[in-house]
Specification:
This is Dihydropteroate synthase. The protein is an alpha/beta fold and 283 residues long. It has 10 helices and 8 strands. An 8-stranded parallel β-sheet has the order 6-5-4-3-2-1-8-7. The longest helix has 18 residues.
Length: 283
């Protein structure tokens, strides 16, 4: 398994801080259900170097139950409004949802981006909404649903299949009227998105092949179970160093955006890897 090495991105890596306003997320479920706690956490991530904040009201961990859109809105909208009033306009707020209704409400409340783990497949109104409001949208590869996606996932060539799926979803977004500059791609790394341990490692080694599609790539490995398995089954909040290793690897392969819980540590990893990658190409 060789690592793909395209030219590093010409833009410095950006960090997307994770804010889960959920009772059941695998790593931090229940910690930020109260608005004040959620806002304080978001502000702390900005102080630590986050460039974007990603706010979600539904867990995507394996086996999690769908959260109705009205409940997602109840969880997130006040937090979005509070943050939009308190942070600089240049800091994007992203809404993590597969429901166009939730995305529209969040964008009206002050969010800027959409992060759709179904890549617009769960709700046919999502891509037209992103086009209508000219909102950047992250399109993620996912096989199945949280209830089904870990039933013995199989691929003949996981990198090629994920790449082809993401290319097709990008084409669908363009056909719906989404601007090319507003499309980002996420390979959906993790046991919870229809990949096993070997699939995840192969995708990490092949990130450069996804970068070659020409759209910014987002990498989300933060604290994930497959990292814990590699490190002796350590608990989720003890997987910071492992996450930083994947962040550095991603920077060296041209990944531009990293979705993380632990911003300060990953900021250091990203910045060091970026400084090295610039010198390795003569920039």
């Amino acid at each position: 398994m060789s690592i793909a090495h395209p030219s590093p991105s010409s833009r410095p890596p950006r960090l997307m801080g994770i804010l889960n306003i959920t009772p059941d997320s695998f790593s931090d479920g229940g910690r930020y259900l109260e608005r004040e706690a959620a806002v304080a956490r978001a502000l702390r991530m900005l102080e630590e170097g986050a460039d974007i904040l990603d706010i979600g009201g539904e867990s995507t961990r394996p086996g999690s139950a769908p959260v109705p859109p009205e409940e997602q809105e109840r969880r997130i909208l006040d937090v979005v409004r509070q943050l939009r009033d308190r942070i600089p306009a240049g800091i994007p707020l992203s809404i993590d949802t597969t429901w166009a209704r939730v995305a529209r409400a969040a964008l009206a409340a002050g969010a800027d981006w959409i992060n759709d783990t179904s890549a617009g497949l769960d709700d046919p109104d999502m891509l037209p909404l992103a086009a209508e409001l000219q909102a950047p949208i992250v399109l993620m590869h996912r096989r199945g649903t949280p209830q089904t996606m870990q039933r013995a996932p199989e691929y003949l060539d996981v990198v090629a299949e994920v790449r082809d799926h993401l290319a097709a979803r990008a084409e669908a977004a363009l056909a719906a009227g989404v601007r090319e500059c507003d499309i980002l791609l996420d390979p959906g790394i993790g046991i919870g998105f229809g990949k096993d341990q070997e699939h995840n490692l192969t995708l990490l080694a092949g990130l450069g092949r996804l970068v070659e599609l020409g759209f910014p790539v987002l990498l989300g490995t933060s604290r994930k179970r497959f990292l814990g398995a590699l490190c002796g089954d350590v608990a989720a909040d003890e997987r910071v160093a492992a996450t930083c290793a994947t962040t550095a690897l991603g920077v060296m392969q041209g990944v531009e955006l990293f979705r993380v819980h632990d911003v300060a540590a990953n900021r250091q990893a990203a910045d060091v890897a970026w400084a090295i990658s610039c010198r390795s190409t003569g920039d």
